[in-house]
Amino acid sequence: MEYPSKLIEDAVNEVAKLPGIGKKTALRLVLHLIKENENRTITLTDSLNTLRSNIKFCKTCHNISDDEECIICKSHRRDRTILCVVEDTQDVMAIENTAQFKGVYHVLGGVISPMNGIGPSDLKIDSLVNRISDLNTEVKEIILALSPTMEGDTTSFYINRKLNTYGIKITSIARGVPMGGDLEYADEITLGRSITARTLFS
Amino acid sequence: MEYPSKLIEDAVNEVAKLPGIGKKTALRLVLHLIKENENRTITLTDSLNTLRSNIKFCKTCHNISDDEECIICKSHRRDRTILCVVEDTQDVMAIENTAQFKGVYHVLGGVISPMNGIGPSDLKIDSLVNRISDLNTEVKEIILALSPTMEGDTTSFYINRKLNTYGIKITSIARGVPMGGDLEYADEITLGRSITARTLFS
User: Fold this and answer.
1) I need a surface site. Which of A42, A130, B82, B121 has the fewest CB within 10 A?
2) B chain contacts of residue A48, beta-carbon cutoff 8 Å
3) Where are the alpha helices (DSSP H) in chain B?
4) Do B130 and B34 belong to one domain?
5) Is B37 a domain residue?
6) What is the domain count for chain B?
7) Distances in Å between the alpha carbon of B140 and those of A182, B62, B96?
8) Whole domain around residue A50: which residue ranges?
9) Cα separation of B94 and B77, whole Å?
10) Alpha-carbon gap: B4 to the closest alpha carbon of chain A (Å)
């Protein structure tokens, strides 16, 4: 594509580096900013710069936070005996939205993925072990809430092997047919697992 | 949605104001920037700020430009006897991509649209009339290349009425482009044909 201006070209190339944004979408966004008032662009870029330079990670659970410690770890209403291990911030938000969990979290920052060159040392697994091995730990149960993929399973197995010597209950979120789904459209592995891992009806 | 941080919330709200970007996509983009190096965010915001504060509009054709006059108006290879009237920059880029047009442009900056409160005075129509009524004008033909929509047609009729007293040939791009379509999304062959097969307007 030929751009009428070098400035446009530079901006489009930068915006198109964002995930899921192609050149055509980037051009549309950039031309939108040109049409809008200049203050609009300043507000947008300021909010991104402020975010990027001031964002912190909770020293306890490694979730994204405005302060040294995140609002969940700081809260007195959370149950510190249950710890939920997740991949990233989006997963914390998704679980918080269910309003079914009142414990605390541990954010790994990813899953073990040799294909992408991510090993256990790139994740917050040592920090998780430290939290559990701490003599003053209140944790009585660890819920592994990782994605039901090859990488997620590998990571769950690895964490389980690291932690099962501490005599703490380790659970994993239920795998089965999703609510509202149609049985005949469920894939064979999911349906198979949902039968072998059936639960008591009550 | 509850965000783990006020900074995230502010950034997401700003990004989600862009056209076609919802809160969920905005969150994904913002979290991507947090994962990446801080320089990445700085480069992105710098390119947008530089663009927004330095971008100019060509004094002749009103296309987006790095200078007072755009590269097309400056070029000695362009045929100044044919003037193509388009809605916006994306249309200029689309027509340039067909390589079927060697004349110059006039960018209106929109089309007449009473529904959106856009009247003739909000567009560069007076400036077009000045270009044509200029005694030194070289223009021998005006091609109306507006979107084949109600608004585009209305604008074409309006411009034709304003210009048909100057004894200049006024043509319109051939209706090879499907009705209700948007110029920037037409494929190059259709768009190219529509220029070579232009018909007399009226």
Assistant:
1) B121
2) 11, 14-15, 30, 33, 41, 44-45
3) 6-15, 23-35, 38-54, 71-74, 89-98, 125-133, 150-163, 188-196
4) no
5) yes
6) 2
7) 66, 20, 20
8) 6-54
9) 19
10) 6
